[in-house]
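Our collaborator T.R. sent over the components below with a one-line note: 'Predict the complex.' Nothing else. No constraints on interfaces, no templates requested, no preferences about which chain binds where. So this is a plain run: every listed entity goes in together, and whatever single assembly comes back becomes the starting point for the next discussion.
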Amino acid sequence: MALLQVEDLSLSYGQQKVLNHISFSFEKGKIIGLLGPNGAGKSSIIKILAGLVFPETGILYYREARKRSFSELREHCSYLIDSPAFYPFLSGKQNLKLIKKINNNKSDIDGILSQVGLASAGKKKVKNYSTGMKQRLSIAQAMMRNSELLILDEPFNGLDPNGFQDLMSLLRNLNQKGTTIVVSSHLLNELEQFADVFILLYKGAIAFQTDKKQLMTAKKSVAFTFEKKPDQKAMVYFEDKESSFESETKVILKLDPNDIAKEVQELVGLNCTPINVEIKNILQEKYLEITI
Amino acid sequence: MIRLVHIELYKLFSSGRTYMTLSIGVFLMLIINLGLYTDGEKIFDFLLESINEYFLVQGKVVNGYLITYLALNTLWVHIPILIVIVAAHIFSSEFEMGTIRLLLTQPISRRHLFFAKLITMIVFNACFMLLVSLAAFIPALLLFGKGDVIVFIDGIQFVQEATFMGRLIYALLFATLAMIAFSCLSMFFGLLFKSTLTSILLSLGLLILFTLLQKFIFGIFSAWQPFIFTYHFAKWQMFFVNDIPVASILRSVYFLTGMCLFLILLSWIKFEKMNISE
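Returned assembly:
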């Protein structure tokens, strides 16, 4: 059963078409990665799902029940939208208290602050927070509602490597407890390791959609680099394969992930030992294919 | 809804800007009192010279009631300036800080948020007017005592001591309505331009422009006067006329209430339909 299903979503700002009748759905418990270059429509989708922006067309189903508007999703969902914004004249803890009061829940503010690494900075005014600290506070406010769906727009922005790792493990932890997570990002490699479903957007349309299983089993482009141009025997071997030459000494083969080691052995047997083997990232390839 | 109003009030009274504005309002009243306490007699002697030629004046003309009335003249420009600084901030600051996204991604409706902010703005207006009035009235009463009041509104008006308090309360209630109407104007500009500064400048620009037009131009084209809000703002003075022109005051109450409702409706529609894309 799809947790969330969106049909025929479109949005324009004046003459500019931002989203062009797109549809997507995802199941409960998954991590969904929204990918794409700037202006592809990632943030617009998230702002529509948050009820901040009204689409021209679009139907929303949540747990297969049709909703009258996208704003109704707020009942079930927590958000982290774009750059974090809080009341600068209040402390981090006071800001969270406001959110707690709005939601009328009993969340443990101190516990959440320590989970996001802000236990010691809770009493500090937000105007004195760094970007990374504000980002952590945003995550804290999103966690406060304990929603089953968490939507995050570029959550890794402004985080240092430690913060990035902390956030990754925090999100994985939430996902393991059953929270469905939608993350928009342009960090392809990081997202490939993290998400279960990938939606690549380009110019307001879904350019490519896949999941982790397909990504793991799909043929990958593997670049073999040799010290010198391969001999005739090796060239014949490459002609029989799905191959292309990037240069005289670099050949790209489309291979099943399980066959890569076997392929290296065969090349060694042909007296054509590669000095470098590079497995290309499928998402990155698709991304470049679409955007260039 | 009540929870949201509490939150909005908490935010309002956690901001330094609110206290700064309230303090300036109180300080202004104290300065007026102090100034009149030190040099008031000389000024009033000069002003009352002509009256003394025709009337026999007994008792204290310069008394706490007169000082309170004079302090209320700051309602023309000073108090609206102070009020609009906070009123405009209530809405537009959320856009400037980006916190509107934080609020609207919580499970609350735009309608509830809008009306919670509106109620907060009205509460602030009432608090401000009450505080400023007390800051004018209490020191004036302590320093100058009570007495009948002579004021100049369409000629000389004599207000008896016994009726002054009632008139003052009505005048303050009316002035609060006027300030709420003015705050609604700044709220509308705040939502339209999502900028506190623009909202303040536009509201004050209109206030100054209409006050000048009313004083210098509309004197010639008086038929236009009932259509500008500053004309109605000034009606608080009419509570200190001997025979209070009830019908004229009621017309202004209707105008200001209508102005409030119209601006609230426009602002609400704007807020409900607004895309928060930035």
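Summary for T.R.: Residues 12 and 247 of chain B are 37 Å apart (CA to CA).
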